[in-house]
Amino acid sequence: MLILVEYFDGNFGFVDPGRLDDLIMSRRITGFRRATEWVRVPYGPLRGHGGKRYAGYDRRGATA
Hints:
Layout: E1 3-7, E2 12-15, H1 20-25, E3 29-33, E4 38-40
Antiparallel strand pairs: 1-2, 1-3, 3-4
């Protein structure tokens, strides 16, 4: 499952879930789409290295 992201130049793209942390940490994206909402980096609730305020399910590590 790919994740929709918004880059700083205003363009949108889909990335593999494994790349999301790298894009957040390198500040290459302004936000990404969760199943129910857009998350704005660094303001939204993030999990892992991005922040500690996210308490939701981590689907990036889940297997189908």
